[in-house]
Design a protein that fits this description.
6 helices; RNA-DNA hybrid ribonuclease activity; 217 residues; 51% helix; alpha/beta; RNase_H-like_dom_plant; RNaseH_domain
Length: 217
């Protein structure tokens, strides 16, 4: 269809050239010229759209990829209102945004949101350790969790024991920093956690992740 439309345009353009400038192309040359223009346009347009799409995806997610050669862990927890379960999402990606490991885990039990988020981070770090991965840094979207992990002060509530485990796992897998980011920058991990709640099942992917989980980030 694109070629047909371009040929029609070419005929119209050639007609104007003959009418006004007394010059034009013969039919065979005209078809080849139009085909070349179309190929050039499609190639340029595809490149531009690809660049815009990549830039939009990064802006939409608000994510910051790790430096070349490093991995980054994102985790999240989804806690249904009034439920006695929650979902954990964890994704490990490289500097190009490619998924190395992705986890969606369903957990029975009632805990505060802070504890669920901390358990999600611990699960993601454990996943990295189990597969022998070195993680540059970890990201969650709850400030209280990163504050608890990075704090040197002693505390005595239940979540502190989880923080102790997280700190030990961070050392084991090489995490230099655990930081809080916006929800939109944590979209894939959130979608993985939501999947766990909706399916009531565990899922693990290596080297890829369902493309649908990247939507709505």
């Amino acid at each position: 269809m694109a070629r047909f439309v371009m040929v029609l345009w070419g005929i119209w353009f050639n007609r104007n050239q003959l009418l006004h400038n007394k010059c034009g192309r013969d039919p065979g040359e005209l078809v080849l010229w139009v085909a070349g223009l179309l190929e050039e346009f499609q190639g340029t347009n595809k490149s531009i759209l690809s660049s815009i799409s990549s830039a939009s995806a990064v802006a939409k997610e608000g994510r910051h990829p790790p430096p070349l050669g490093y991995l980054k862990l994102n985790t999240d927890a989804v806690v249904p209102h009034g439920g006695n379960c929650f979902g954990i999402g964890a994704v490990i990606r490289d500097s190009e945004g490619k998924v190395v490991l992705a986890l969606s885990k369903f957990v029975q039990g009632y805990f505060s949101v802070e504890v669920c988020e901390a358990l999600a981070l611990r699960e993601g770090l454990s996943l990295a350790k189990q597969h022998g991965l070195s993680i540059g840094w970890a990201e969650v979207d709850v400030v209280n969790v990163t504050a608890g992990v990075n704090s040197s002060q002693l505390c005595r509530n239940a979540v502190c024991f989880v923080f102790d485990d997280i700190s030990a796992l961070c050392r084991d897998v090489g995490v230099s920093e655990c930081k809080a980011i916006s929800r939109c920058g944590n979209g894939v991990a959130h979608n993985l956690a939501s999947l766990a709640v909706s399916s009531s099942q565990d899922h693990l992917w290596q080297g890829h992740c369902p493309f649908s989980l990247f939507y709505g980030c």
